[in-house]
Amino acid sequence: MLILLLLLLCGAVHSSLFEIPVSLDQKSLPSIHYDGGSDPAQTVAAYLIANDLKPQQDLVNALNKRVISMLHTLATNTAGKELLFNVPFTLGSVTYELPLYEKMSVLLVASNFCVTHVNMLDTYEISVAECTSTVIQLTDDLHDRLLSYATSEDRRKGM
Predict the structure, then answer these.
(1) Contact at 8 Å (CB) between 102 and 85?
(2) Residue 111: CA atoms inside 13 Å, Cβ hemisphere, count?
(3) Per-residue pLDDT tens for 71-94?
(4) What's the CA gap between 122 and 55, in Å, rounded?
(5) Among the ranges given (10-14, 22-26, 40-44, 86-90), the one the predictor scored with the smallest mean pLDDT
(6) pLDDT tens for each residue of 31-46
(7) Sign of CA pseudo-dihedral 53, 54, 56, 60
(8) How many angstroms separate the CA atoms of 63 and 47, rounded?
(9) How do strand 16-24 and strand 27-35 relate by DSSP bridges?
(10) How far is CA 46 from CA 38, 43, 107, 126, in A?
C-alpha cells in the first residue's frame, strides 16, 4: 500500500494530462493539449493563437466545454478503483474533502477540483494553477504524515 501511495503521489508534476482532436469546417487541426493545473480558458486561448484561429465565441465555447468535460470525465472515472484516502482542505469558509483513488493522477484530480470551483477561486483571486499546486502540496503533506505514521508503527511493532 505504501509503495502505491508513493507511485501515486510522486507523479504530481504539471504535465500534459490529455489531448483532444479538433476539426473545424471538416478540416482536421492539431489536437488541443490540456496541461494539468492550467485554466481551460487559457489553454483554449493559447491553442487559438498557436493555430492562427479567430476567437469566434461558438468555437471558444465548444473547445472550453470539451476540455472541461474531458477533464471531469477522466477525474471522476473511479470504477473499480479503491479509495486510498481523502485530503481535507478549506477554501474560504468551506471545507472540502478531495478523494484520491488508486491509479489516479493527483494532478488530474486536483486540476478537476480547481476547474470545477473556478468561480469560487475568482472570488479569492486564486488561479487554477495556484489552487492545483496548493491541493498537490496538501496531498504531499498528508502523504508524508501517513508514511511517518506507518514507519513509526513498524518500529513500534519491531521492538
Answers:
(1) no
(2) 29
(3) 999 999 999 999 988 888 887 788
(4) 23
(5) 10-14
(6) 999 999 999 999 999 9
(7) positive
(8) 10
(9) antiparallel
(10) 11, 5, 21, 20
The residue behind cell 471538416 is 26
Neighbours of 142 (CB within 10 A): 18
* Grid cell digits, residue 11: 507523479
Amino acid at 66: R
Per-residue pLDDT, 36:
95
Where does residue 52 fall: left (phi above 0), alpha (psi -120 to 50 degrees), or beta otherwise? left
Check residue 43 and give left, alpha or beta (phi > 0: left; psi -120 to 50: alpha). Answer: alpha
Which residues lie below 8 Å from residue 50, measured CB to CB, with a gap of 6+?
A: 30
Give the mean model confidence (pLDDT) for residues 136-154: 82
pTM recorded for the entire structure: 0.82
